[in-house]
Write a structure and sequence with these properties.
Shape: globular
CATH topology of the largest domain: Nucleotidyltransferase, domain 5
EC number: 2.7.1.170
Oligomer: single chain
Radius of gyration: 19 Å
Organism: Marivivens niveibacter
Number of domains: 2
Distance between the termini: 9 Å
Largest sheet: 7 strands, mixed
CATH class of the largest domain: Alpha Beta
Bound molecules: adenosine-5'-triphosphate, the ligand CC(=O)N[C@H]1[C@@H]2OC[C@@H](O2)[C@@H](O)[C@@H]1O[C@H](C)C(=O)O
Family: Belongs to the anhydro-N-acetylmuramic acid kinase family.
InterPro entries: Anhydro_N_Ac-Mur_kinase, ATPase_NBD
Enzyme class: transferase
Length: 364
């Protein structure tokens, strides 16, 4: 049995931008953050990304991609000193909570054997079975971070990965599942459409520091059409699959390349600005995590659109490259300690529940 005090957990995230695996150690009892530990990144090779990309949107015949995910995780995780528990998110390849469910590939039971450590995994399925979106799940960790930072007024965490998601937090509440503590949802597409366009039109994986967007002009017609999409008028909680806004590809096709990248960047920023209307109050600060915080054009657009300070999480001493990996370390400990990992305000699940299962190595 795992002890109920603080334990050393190692969390992983293989996100929708398909760039690689983040892994980070966190010492926590599943409520309080005690210590941040070492972290590491293991990029996918172009060949590996292609195999995963080919699995996107599929619900079966994803064994090759699952093997890539398991191998990459086994490699990165074996570089760390032993820990008490691993939180393995896996790789989302399909997400349709109202229909077929949600699929994160990679088998946690195999990793438990290979690494000889208990593994918490399959974090999203139970939430979907109980009527939730299965995402976003980082909000309970964002709540712990707000407490760790000593916030006294509402704050927001904004993750800009392949998809964007925000969490509004009232730090005066004592637990994340308490009524009014959290509002969370996916804001819209973030880096994924920018990356896809950069790859096909510029042969680059992403728009480094937003330099291409900076040179272009935003097309107001496309931006207006994008912002009138029904997704933005749905009340939260709500979540997206990586390619739910594939229609953007057609809309930007007639634009000059710099203008297309500028417009996609504005779509990401303005979806967040519009999303703010769903929050109970203006936060005292927006702490930005995920790779999008390194895009200066995107950060400038957010600052111009949001009437509050917009800061990379590094400004308050956190690591924006590893925050999601830490989140799955945190959630793993919550699963082990029988604490909830989502609630009606974060995913729309019927009641606060603890998702995730724990696989133990044979003999433990
Ligand atoms: N220097 C940079 N300039 C601009 N964009 C960057 C930079 N560095 C990273 N990014 C963007 O951030 C992306 C990676 O972000 P991140 O690692 O947060 O995504 P993820 O975890 O895969 O996604 P998700 O949170 O949706 O699961 C890159 O693919 C790129 O688009
Ligand atoms: C289904 C799925 O994997 N969703 C991811 C994705 O990437 C960002 C956004 O969409 C968020 O909803 C979620 O990831 C973060 C870690 C979350 O669950 O909080």
């Amino acid at each position: 049995m795992l002890k109920l005090g603080p334990i050393r957990a190692l969390g992983t995230m293989s996100g929708t931008s398909l760039d690689g695996v983040d892994a980070a150690v966190l010492v926590t009892d599943g409520e309080k953050i005690y210590e941040f530990g070492p972290s590491d990144f293991r990029p996918y090779t172009p060949g590996e990304s292609d195999v995963i990309r080919a699995a996107l949107g599929k619900w079966d015949e994803v064994d090759d991609a699952a093997e890539v995910v398991e191998t990459a995780h086994a490699q990165i995780l074996s570089r760390f000193d032993p820990c008490d528990l691993i939180g393995f998110h896996g790789q989302t390849v399909a997400h349709d909570p109202a229909g077929r469910g949600t699929l994160q590939i990679g088998d946690g039971a195999i990793l438990a054997e290979v690494l000889n450590t208990p593994v918490a995994w399959d974090f999203r399925s139970a939430d979907v079975r109980l009527g939730g979106q299965g995402a976003p799940l980082a909000p309970f960790y964002h709540f712990a971070l707000a407490k760790y930072l000593g916030a006294t007024a509402p704050v927001m965490f904004l993750n800009l990965g392949g998809v964007g998601n925000l969490t509004w937090i009232d730090p005066a509440k004592s637990a994340p599942e308490e009524d009014g503590a959290l509002v969370a949802f996916d804001t819209g597409p973030a880096n994924a459409p920018i990356n896809d366009y950069m790859l096909t039109h510029f042969g680059q994986a992403y728009d480094d520091n937003g330099a291409v967007a900076r040179k272009g002009n935003v097309d107001d017609d496309v931006l207006g059409k994008f912002l009138s999409h029904s997704y933005f008028y749905k009340m939260p909680p709500k979540s997206l699959d990586r390619d739910d806004f594939a229609v953007l590809t057609d809309w930007i096709a007639p634009l000059a390349p710099n203008d297309a990248v500028a417009t996609l960047t504005a779509c990401c920023a303005m979806a967040v600005v519009q999303g703010m209307d769903h929050c109970p109050s203006k936060p005292s600060a927006v702490y930005v995590t995920g790779g999008g915080r390194k895009n200066a054009t995107l950060m400038d657009m957010l600052t111009a659109g949001l009437d509050c300070p917009v800061l990379p999480v590094e400004d308050v001493g956190l690591d924006g490259d590893m925050l999601e990996a830490q989140a799955f370390a945190y959630l793993a400990v919550r699963v082990a300690h029988g604490l909830p990992t989502s609630c009606p305000a974060t995913t729309g699940v019927r009641a606060a529940i603890g998702g995730g299962t724990i696989s133990r190595p044979t003999g433990n």
